[in-house]
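Input chain follows. Return structure tokens only.
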Amino acid sequence: MSKRLAVIPLLIGLVALSALASVVHAQSVVTMTAAEFAFTPATVRSASGTVSINLRNDGQFPHNIQFDGQDAPIFTDSLTSGQSATATVNLAPGVGRRARVRRSRWS
């Protein structure tokens, strides 16, 4: 009987750790590069919630990221060639959230 009672605190500890782990995974960091019409990596998986996106523009022209369903790109100003920036976004739960490289217009 005492061995069974010893298992209960262990189970409680595992449940607490798994709950803590889900909170830690709710925020993630994604590092990407953008070039003309492409992201690297091409596919990124992230949990819903707060996500920090680090983007470096390896392209020749200004670039930005805009998620489908959002009115504006995530960076206030597009990144010029060689420039890097970080933005934090809040992603709603859902299956598949598409983003596209947004190339700024130039004259």
